[in-house]
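Renewal narrative, Specific Aim 1. Our central claim is that a sequence can be written position by position from structural information alone. The example that follows is taken directly from our test logs and has not been curated for this report. It begins with the C-alpha cells describing the chain, in the order in which they were read.
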C-alpha cells in the first residue's frame, strides 16, 4: 500500500544499459514470437523508459486511478480471505486460467515448459492488474519474483438497456446493485468507486441493508469489509448468472490498461514452484500509484 510511482521510477532510471540489453536479449530468446533488437540504439535507456512510463501514467492511468485502486484492493481482500479460511489452493483459484497448487509445495501458473523457480524466505509478490486477461512473471537480478495476474472484475462491463430486475423493484436500484456487487466482499470506498456513487450514498444504502440483515460488516484493521449474509445470498442469488452489479444507474465503467500494485500480506510457507513461483500475497500501491506496466 505504501509503494509509490515516484520511488518505483527512481529504481527504473538507475538500471545500467548493459543490464537492459541483457534482459531484452533473454526475453527475445524465450519469446514465442520472433523478434530482433535491431531497433535498440542510443544510450540512457533506463532514464528514457522511466520518462515514458511517467507520461503514460499521467495521461492514461492517473485520471482513473481511484477506481482502479479500489478494484485492486478488493482483489487482495478477496484472496487474503480465501487464504486465511481455506489455504493456498483456494486462494489461487482462477488467478489465471492454469493456476493451481501442485503437490505439497508448488504453484503452477503456466502450461508451458520451463525450469522451476525456487522461492526463498523473502517470499514473492502477487500483483493484480486492471486488465481482463494475461499473466506474466517478473524477476529481479537478486532472485525475487512477482506473479502478475488480472484482478477479479477487470472484465466487468455494463449491459446497456438491460431491464430492471425484480430485485431492484423490490429494494431499489442502488441497494440491489450493492447487494449484487457484494457477491465478493468489499469496503464502502471500493463499492463507491466500482459503482460510481458517493460514499454518503453507499453508506446510506449499506445501513439499510445491514438493518435488514442482508449484509454484515467485519473490521479488518482500519477498514470495514462488507459481505452478504445467508439471507442476502438467497435474495440476490437468482440474479447473479449475468454477473454482479449489472443494473441501470449503477453501471461499471470498462477497464482498459494496466496498473500493477502491491503490498505485504500473508506469510510465505512455500519452498518450490513448478513454473513460475509463489510466496506472500500482495496488494495495490500508494496514493500516486505504482509503476504502470504493459
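The sequence written for that structure reads:
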Amino acid at each position: 500500500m505504501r509503494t509509490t510511482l515516484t520511488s518505483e521510477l527512481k529504481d527504473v532510471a538507475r538500471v545500467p544499459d548493459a543490464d537492459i540489453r541483457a534482459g531484452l536479449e533473454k526475453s527475445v530468446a524465450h519469446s514465442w514470437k520472433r523478434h530482433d533488437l535491431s531497433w535498440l540504439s542510443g544510450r540512457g535507456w533506463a532514464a528514457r523508459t522511466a520518462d515514458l512510463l511517467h507520461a503514460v501514467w499521467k495521461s492514461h492511468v492517473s485520471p482513473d486511478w481511484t477506481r482502479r485502486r479500489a478494484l485492486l484492493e478488493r482483489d487482495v481482500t478477496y484472496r487474503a480471505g480465501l487464504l486465511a479460511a481455506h489455504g493456498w489452493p483456494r486462494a489461487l483459484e482462477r488467478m489465471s486460467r492454469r493456476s493451481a497448487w501442485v503437490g505439497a509445495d508448488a504453484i503452477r501458473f503456466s502450461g508451458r515448459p520451463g525450469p522451476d523457480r525456487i522461492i526463498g524466505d523473502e517470499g514473492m509478490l502477487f500483483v493484480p492488474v486492471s486488465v481482463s486477461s494475461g499473466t506474466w512473471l517478473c524477476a529481479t537480478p537478486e532472485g525475487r519474483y512477482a506473479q502478475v495476474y488480472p484482478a477479479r472484475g477487470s472484465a466487468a462491463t455494463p449491459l446497456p438497456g438491460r431491464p430492471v430486475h425484480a430485485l431492484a423493484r423490490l429494494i431499489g436500484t442502488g441497494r440491489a446493485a450493492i447487494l449484487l456487487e457484494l457477491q465478493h466482499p468489499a469496503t464502502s470506498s471500493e463499492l463507491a468507486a466500482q459503482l460510481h456513487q458517493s460514499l454518503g450514498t453507499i453508506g446510506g444504502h449499506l445501513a439499510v441493508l445491514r438493518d435488514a440483515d442482508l449484509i454484515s460488516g467485519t473490521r479488518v484493521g482500519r477498514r470495514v469489509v462488507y459481505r452478504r449474509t445467508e439471507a442476502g445470498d438467497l435474495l440476490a442469488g437468482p440474479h447473479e448468472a449475468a454477473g454482479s452489479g449489472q443494473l441501470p444507474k449503477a453501471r461499471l465503467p470498462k477497464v482498459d490498461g494496466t496498473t500493477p500494485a502491491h503490498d505485504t500480506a500473508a506469510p510465505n510457507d512455500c519452498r518450490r514452484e513448478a513454473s513460475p513461483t509463489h510466496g506472500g500475497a500482495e496488494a495495490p500501491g500508494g496514493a500516486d500509484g505504482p509503476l504502470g506496466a504493459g
